[in-house]
Amino acid sequence: MKMRLLVLALLLASMAQAQSSYKTLFLGNSYTYVFDLPSILQSLTLAGGDTLFKDSYTPGGYTLQGHSGDVNAQSKIRSQQWDFVVLQEQSQRPSFPQNQVQTQVYPYAAQLDDSIKANDSCTVTVFYMTWGRKNGDASNCASWPPVCTYAGMQYELRRSYLNMANQNSALVAPCGSAWWEAIKRNSLLELYDVDQSHPNYAGSYLNGCVFYATMYRESPVGLNFYGLLDTATAQFLQHVAHDVVFDSLTLWRVGLDDVTANWTWVSDFQGNTNFANSSTNATSYHWDFGDGSVDSVAQPLHQYNAAGLYPVTLIATDGCMTDTLTDTIEIILVGSPEPLASSFCIAPNPSAGLFTASGTGIANATLQVWDLQGRLLHQVLAQDGDARMQLDLRHLPKGVYLLRMLGGPAIRVLLQ
Predict the structure, then answer these.
(1) What is the 3-class SS of the chain, one letter each residue?
(2) 295 forms bridges with which residues in the sheet?
(3) CB 233, CB 202: distance < 8 Å
(4) What is the dihedral angle through the alpha carbons of 72, 78, 81, 82, rounded to the nearest 10 degrees?
(5) What angle do CA 257, 259, 263 make, to 5 degrees?
(6) What pLDDT score does 168 carry?
(7) Is 48 in contact with 89 (CB distance < 8 Å)?
(8) Which residues of the chain have pLDDT under 70?
(9) Cα distance between residue 169 and residue 375, in whole Å
(10) Are 151 and 132 in contact (CB under 8 A)?
(11) What is the pLDDT of residue 24?
């Protein structure tokens, strides 16, 4: 049986109580400020039995370039050991031509991510993907036709936010993609404010659901916080957020950098056991071999001195996140002749296929051969008065088998 536990190291106490408690800073502009997106997210987390400590800095029209050089933004970053810091660019810049985005956006996304990691290397940066304006960007349409429509502007925004996340090994909160999906499913539902750019309450609520799914990795479907919305509208937006986030977790980089413990093993039937560590994203390891021995190397070789079942545990960590995998292995020791019962033995063991059972009471006994999955493969009845019985297993694949006298105990033999 395997047991897996994935936790953030800084939140072990909270996870032990089946809750997630995160500290999150939002750095953005009015797209975050309008209808107080952080508070909507906080209410959703409370409805889900989780908690959120939040702070924000959202001057109107602010860019990532502005935040990167703003002493207030830098002070906010340094004020806590944050679990998440959310970065939101000005609504138009990421939709500009890529050569322009490469000079006006990407360098400042990287600078902010560097500041975040310098404050706490375990903090996760989240890029807040915004949405295209309802009728496109009229002010830039003439010089850059792709943004003349909502669809074209949304495509460019999506591309740039995904690039920022990939370049900085960060997450994406795909709010813009959720808007696209909501509009596709119900074109009559209004997500825009009167300026056809900022979100109305429904748009901000949808954004909150996306952040909940992205950061907490839990579905917003069924949360009983609806805010200013009627039940049907809120539940519709919850389903949209769930579908967009959970259908493309890898695209949004959710879980992509998680530590995952994984291992396999092989033994030579003399107790020499190789453990093959195939964990991902870990930098250090702790092994417990189940016999009182431990080790910290990545690929250990361990000697077991007795046959039996051993619960082996690997704890893998990167210093921020820890993953634990426990599995029970069976060690089989084969070599010298072993008693089948008090007056029987099997030899040679191991063998190329010919085994001899001997003993004073073997006459008229039935000897059975089983595989380790409990299937009866072969059986032989000894002749009257025989004290020895030859068993030919050369027709079977190499491996370990169980030999037992009908009604008696079994021993393991190695066919090699």
Answers:
(1) CCEEEEEEHHHHHHHHCCCCEEEEEEECCHHHHCCCHHHHHHHHHHHCCCEEEEEEECCCCCCHHHHHCCHHHHHHHHCCCCCEEEECCCCCHHHCCHHHHHHHCHHHHHHHHHHHHHHCCCCEEEEECCCCCCCCCCCCCCCCHHHHCHHHHHHHHHHHHHHHHHHCCCEEECHHHHHHHHHHHCCCCCCECCCCCCECHHHHHHHHHHHHHHHHCCCCCCCCCCCCCCHHHHHHHHHHHHHHHHCCCCCCCCCCCCCECCEEEEECCCCEEEEEECCECCCEEEEECCCCCEECCCCCEEECCCCEEEEEEEEEECCCEEEEEEEEEEECCCCCCEEEECCEEEECCCECCEEEEEECCCCCCEEEEECCCCCEEEEEECCCCCCEEEEECCCCCCEEEEEEECCCCEEEEEEC
(2) 287
(3) yes
(4) 30
(5) 130
(6) 98
(7) no
(8) 1-18, 334-344, 360-364, 373-374, 383-387, 406-410
(9) 50
(10) yes
(11) 98
Token couple for 385: 């008065």
Place of tokens 């000697």: 303
